[in-house]
Amino acid sequence: VMKIQKDIAKIIVDEMPELKPFLDFNGAMYVKVVRAIYGLIESGALWNQHLTDTLIKLGHQQLKTDGCIFKKENSKTGKRTFIGVYVDDLLICCEDENDRIHLIKELEKIYGAMKTNNDYHLIYRGLEIKQSKDLTYTTVSQIEYTKELIKESGITGTARTPCTSTFLSDNSKN
To answer: What are phi and psi of 66, to 5 degrees?
Structure first.
């Protein structure tokens, strides 16, 4: 049951006068919500639970160390799929392109058409992800995000690093 405040209840009653008898003595209205509505406090949690249940039904395991990451190993090929979830965005990383295509088709059966990006260069939540065309390596950086933070912070100068010049070299003993 959800309480609709007086000012919003008035708008509803103005549009649908037949609902006036359902106003309480303060002008508020109580309604039973039968499904999640965008913007309600509970909606995000309900969506996340639905997506989690869906991914688990599709054979993915939710990591115990990070509930936003799911993994699956293809039982025939041994190839792995990892999914990172951020609200309603999915970052899908697969060792086998066929597994990615199959996963998207299964998700589209449930959620409808999905916007996908199949490029080798992607900016996602401040991360810049680049994959080599031969798929032998992937780089992840935050160069643009870092530049944005520096600009917003008003940092204009430089400072010496507290590390020695050999800190990251192979010859370093530390």
So the answer is: -155, 105
